[in-house]
Amino acid sequence: MIRLANVYKKYTEDNTALENISLKVDQGEFLYLVGPSGAGKSTLIKLLTCEERLTRGFLKIGNVDLLKLPDQHVPELRRQLGVVPQDIFLLDHLTVYKNLAYTLQAIEVERKKIKEKVLAALEKVGMLQFKNAYPNQLSIGQQQKIVIARAIVNDPKIILADEPTGNMDNKSAIEIMKILYKLNQSGTTILMATHNSTIVNTLRYRVLEINHGRIIRDQAEGSYGLATDYRDVFVI
Ligand SMILES: Nc1ncnc2c1ncn2[C@@H]1O[C@H](COP(=O)(O)OP(=O)(O)OP(=O)(O)O)[C@@H](O)[C@H]1O
Ligand SMILES: [Mg+2]
């Protein structure tokens, strides 16, 4: 479903954010992207959404070759992806409901379906009672949940989530993981960049570790880091 071969991303001549990345993700997989700040996790996600273009290599999502995809066709790709960017981006002058409805209007979903889909997505993230609130009336964690609702509102086959549990308390983070877990159980492919070692070590999935723009580990049901990492030491 997602295939990268020898992918490079250079932001400038002397700044190579990703180097020789080769990776295959099958439909229905759940993949954590881990690694220190600046490793290249967000860059990898941005290459998949075409927010950034790869410098060279091969990158395909489904039957779409992203190196060759013309800019004017990028929206058609995006509407099939659920994207949770690292920075919360909501339209401040629109209510929560309208922020989500706007996404669906932009991709020409039928009017009567919009209401149904928006309410269902808000219900899934437990934010239905905030549908008439404006983003600046919500906490950062609550805004994050709205961003997740917006990502899932059109039932995407692939979710690309960059730190979806950042800025959240543990209870909210667990709620978000339950949502992603359920979506994955029903066949949605999920790529999630995270620094949350507890989540990675608890809900075990494939772990891809990136460091200095290179893949240094690709492990089925992996852990967040080495056993010597103090965050991985649990007293039972
Ligand atoms: N728009 C940009 N222009 C130039 N360099 C960039 C740009 N975005 C990222 N970089 C560089 O690319 C490298 C990888 O950044 P990236 O944002 O992918 O890291 P990350 O793993 O997501 O980090 P974090 O965990 O802090 O989110 C860094 O060296 C960063 O400075
Ligand atoms: Mg990042």
TrEMBL record:
GO molecular function, one term: ATP binding
UniProt keyword terms in alphabetical order: ATP-binding, Cell cycle, Cell division, Nucleotide-binding, Transport
Record-linked Gene3D superfamilies: P-loop containing nucleotide triphosphate hydrolases (3.40.50.300)
Domain (ABC transporter): residue spans on this chain: 2-236
GO CC terms of this entry: plasma membrane
SUPFAM superfamilies named in the record: P-loop containing nucleoside triphosphate hydrolases (SSF52540)
Cited InterPro entries: AAA+_ATPase (IPR003593), ABC_transporter-like_ATP-bd (IPR003439), ABC_transpr_LolD-like (IPR015854), P-loop_NTPase (IPR027417)
Family in the record: Belongs to the ABC transporter superfamily.
Protein name, per record: Cell division ATP-binding protein FtsE
Native species: Vagococcus carniphilus
Classification of source organism: Bacteria, Bacillati, Bacillota, Bacilli, Lactobacillales
